[in-house]
Amino acid sequence: MSDNHKLLNNPHKTAAGYAHEIKNPITAVRGLLQLLANPDLPALKRSLYTEIAIEELDRANGLLYEMVHNNPPANRQETTNMKEAITKTTLLFEQAIQSKNLQLETFFAGNFNVQIPKQQLAQVLANILKNAIEASRANGRITISAYTERQFGIISIKDNGPGISPEALDMLFTPYFTTKRTGTGLGLSICQSIIHEANGQITVHSEFDAGTEFIVKLPIC
Ligand SMILES: Nc1ncnc2c1ncn2[C@@H]1O[C@H](COP(=O)(O)OP(=O)(O)OP(=O)(O)O)[C@@H](O)[C@H]1O
Ligand SMILES: [Mg+2]
Fold it and tell me: Which of 23, 153, 185, 203 is 20 to 30 Å apart from 34, CA to CA?
């Protein structure tokens, strides 16, 4: 398959897609190091942030392995605990959330596993949460909820930012569509291709000046 064709169907499997996805763990480690630089950080948080920073470097390494070998690492875990995945993603963005003084709330209705590799769910959650943080005004609110509906696990990521125009909504999942000065416009197209590959769905509801909600639906195991 040519890289151009891949970009439309599987943007997460192109060189540009991997580069985009390797940036997220690097940015996360940077944020964690900034938090770790605080001498008053409690010991428990210090060890938690250190552990997560190491895991994120391993994640970046895993993506590089997959890119170079054109194959995921052999020990890839195929199911993922939703609560753990969400908790970890929110920690990765703690520094960004604090610096904008955002209020982040999480609600878990039940504890369940979904059929998607842990690494890939991490990519999807990171891209959606990153967008929500970038869209939020100072002191804004982001709400993440996870629940089940029949044989599906659902996650909703909602912000009270400026919302998305109807024209932009039509283009949202198209590779390289961006309204940001420094955006690459790959985040959501990568999320969509990962979720479709896992037999799930990703939808968005947005209201001008009121906020945006992304809903990800994945089969439960
Ligand atoms: N929560 C949100 N609120 C408002 N607009 C959003 C939100 N999420 C996505 N968007 C819009 O969707 C566009 C595409 O998002 P996408 O994540 O694919 O690319 P990007 O964020 O612009 O760049 P990057 O490749 O760095 O992620 C954004 O430029 C923005 O206009
Ligand atoms: Mg983005």
Answer: 185
